[in-house]
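__Protein archive entry__

___
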Amino acid sequence: MPAEWEPHAATWLAWPHYKGDWPGKFEPIPWVYAEIIRHLGRHERVELIVNHAASEKRARRTLDRANALSENVRFHRWPTNRVWTRDSGCTFVLGSLGDGRPRPSMPSEARQLLGIKWRFNAWAKYPDWQYDDKIGSRMAKAAGAKEVRPTLGKQRVVLEGGSIDVNGRGTLLTTEECLLSRVQQRNPAMRRQDYAKVFADYLGIKNVIWLGSGITGDDTHGHVDDITRFVAPDTVVTAVEPNPNDANYEPLRANIRRLREATDQAGKPISIIELPMPAPVVFEGRRLPASYGNFYIANGVVLVPVFNDPNDRVALDILADLFPDREVIGIYSGDLIWGFGAMHCMTQQQPSV
């Protein structure tokens, strides 16, 4: 699995349509998507999933008004339950097929694009996921990728893309809260060593770094893409909360302690850069999973959720230093985060072959 900063052929997104994900706040959401697509379309192709012809017509009208409609936007009429393509879509990797599993050790010129089609069950939480579970297969076919369905024994593996992050060299980040907890349990029979085998077989992973917990308000129960992300093969940014009275204070401190003891696939220490948290974002009495860690790295640009918070500028400056060859752009996400996701949750990169 290539790192996110490696060259993309495209970014996949799904146009928002389910008002129940943003109750009372849906109206601004398509305009947030239009802004994201406008920035992405300047640098790479955007593969945009729409529910049907009427949905495509509405999306085209919104994108046109927002100066975001271009030849780089390609539409796919496939029904979805929700729009969190990071989790419902396939994970694209580069490899070759022998016994039905990717072989990432092949020379780069012999590799092909593969679509790792995890089983999706709506974060083991919601009953409506049947359309979304088909999206990964449709993405792989449209991209010309060979579909691969991970199994352990006879069981298909449930996994969401937001639960993992990779450095492109064989090291993967994830959390115990998401994959090993009995709450929202994805794969009841799987243990730590089972996940390590699946990651090795299907993503080419040699080394797994297990963090503890995600952030308060995370509807997925511990996705790593809200808290700790690779920004280089040997470097991560990780969220920190300075307020000892905040619910995120101790879990994030515990994660940094684990990172200080962690190594990469070659046994070398990981460089750690601290990324501040915004002040709590609360709506209708519920704390939302607002975090700068949910940024998305595309060709030529890094899109970062911001919240009209003093730490917005601090986070953008940190990421700008880390990606000097890319524009680092803040996308206001105060309304978007009411759907419990931001830039990284809604996107899925398709690497160049």
